[in-house]
Amino acid sequence: MSSLPSRRRFIGISAAAAGLSLLPLGHKARAEADLVIWQGQVMGAVATLQIHHHDRAAARRLIDRALSEARRLEQVFSLYRDDSALTVLNRQGALVAPPAELVTVLKDCRRYFELTRGRFDPTVQALWTLYRDHFSRPDADPQGPPAQALSAVLARTGFDGVAFNKDRIALRRPGMALTLNGIAQGFATDQVVNLLRGEGIESSLVDMGESRALGARPDGSAWRFGVADPDRPERIGQTLEAIDQAVATSGAYGFRFDPAGRFNHLFDPRTGDCAHLHRSVTVVMPTAMAADALSTAFSLMAPADIARALRELGEGEVRSITASGEHLALRA
Fold first, then answer.
1. Is the dihedral of CA 65, 290, 318, 201 positive or negative?
2. What are the φ and ψ backbone dihedral angles of 154, each rounded to 5 degrees?
3. What is the number of other CB atoms lying within 10 angstroms of the CB of residue 264?
4. Quick one: DSSP state of residue 267?
5. φ and ψ at 281, to 5 degrees?
6. CA distance 252 to 150
7. Are 320 and 282 in contact (CB under 8 A)?
8. Mean pLDDT per segment of 10 residues, for the chain of length 332 residues?
9. What is the pTM of this model?
10. 190: which DSSP letter?
11. Residues 85-171, CATH architecture
């Protein structure tokens, strides 16, 4: 079994220079602009990048730059790579002269840790390891890990045990480990959006684990995002529209440790329990990093607590399907 769950199945970047049509991924291009397509693997996922541009060479350069940026960030944040900065930090318990991007993301982790009263906490990697090891055994107790083992792991969690500045990162408790899977995909998406914007792209849809729209569609209309049906995740349960916003969805259906589906990858870092208040939480925010982090944290929060967090932020929208099947829409 892999070292962590992943919501990533497909990475897509579809972009158009100013004044050009932009087609959904998988559609044929019209004649008004050259379409350059790249397909392959990026950040552990199948990727398709397509850019409409009057200049094919310029489109190729943009694709090369987007790929280079994604692979550079993978070297920082990936838990699949033994030599990534994050893996080295977890292995050694400290990291000297850390990459600036890692420090930046940790600063935002602290912000969301405080905003969500500790629900967003990247130190839950130790809980992932506990549940993975428990349910990997053929004789695993279907009730989950023993209480004593859970207590021992919880003693190694808590973002207040992570010290960092631009010169050094230290995990203060023995056995601590970080996963940034709940925020780094969003950060990478934002970085690629910034790159495209800086190169004159005015309309784009970037999906690197989380989705973010750059501007509106070329015709001025809003982008439409499909939200998975939590009971049948391969199907679209609802759609929403957004312009120059990011959308991220979290749900227990994303990964389950046991056949009964009682234990999932969304851990409450305060108790070690798994998310059960919502079947699905979708967050719309100005950045993919914010949407990514908050969709994870809000999965562990009651609607009143989510509403309080949105008021403190002063921005954003949340669509939730509660455990009882109620559909909620909350706004800042």
1. negative
2. -60, -30
3. 21
4. B
5. -135, 125
6. 20
7. yes
8. 42 69 46 71 74 83 89 93 96 98 98 97 96 95 96 96 98 95 91 88 81 84 88 87 93 88 92 94 96 96 97 97 95 94
9. 0.88
10. H
11. Orthogonal Bundle (1.10)
